[in-house]
Amino acid sequence: MGPELSVNLNAIAMLRNRRDLPWPSVTGLGRIALRSGAHGLTVHPRPDQRHIRFSDLPEIRRLIDEEFPEAEFNIEGYPSEEFLDLVRAARPEQITLVPDDPSQPTSDHGWDFMAQADYLKPIVAQLKGQGARVSLFADADPSQMEAAAATGCDRVELYTGPYGATHSDPEAARAEIARLGETADAAFANGLGVNAGHDLTVANLPPLVARIPKLAEVSIGHGLTADALEYGMAETVRRFVRACGHSG
Asked: Fewer C-beta neighbours within 10 Å, C or N terminus of the chain?
């Protein structure tokens, strides 16, 4: 049994935002993704709203509540007061905290749990008090997992960007998988669940899943959206579901 697939809608929203028009529809393509086998939808609402807009959040919440009650809404972001207000209103099943500067184009590193555990603990407790599962973005570093668990989070999301960057170097890919696998082992040993995300593809998912068979969830946006331009959203989701180890 492989990980569940959460489809990140940011790239779709960024394409929509190129024009003052309602298409491509973020919720419309989210609906297709969920109908085609995705377990959930992920968004990262940044302060400048350059892709997902704050106004998208209640619409995605409504889509899941009314049409896909078994699906999950995952909202990721830096825990500013503005972000905490957004997730309080949107009631996501999962909140993924990332240490991004608001100006970053995309998430590119995990938390330094040893240095930032005291900062994260009260935020994690607050979010869990709202009934959400809390996941924290993490680098491939086994030595950080004990400190990650000390924050009280439920899961870590392994940052797989360096693994995705090895697409033309099989030896480097094996080294990155080994680091990710060792980090997952350390997370499991400390009682944490493990998600993964960033630059995952149909090609590089199966080796990752083989090394981390207890991987709970993968969140995929850029590669999935790129494939959707070629295969369509429904078939692309089915391809990624199969790459996760499920029939679809």
From this structure: N
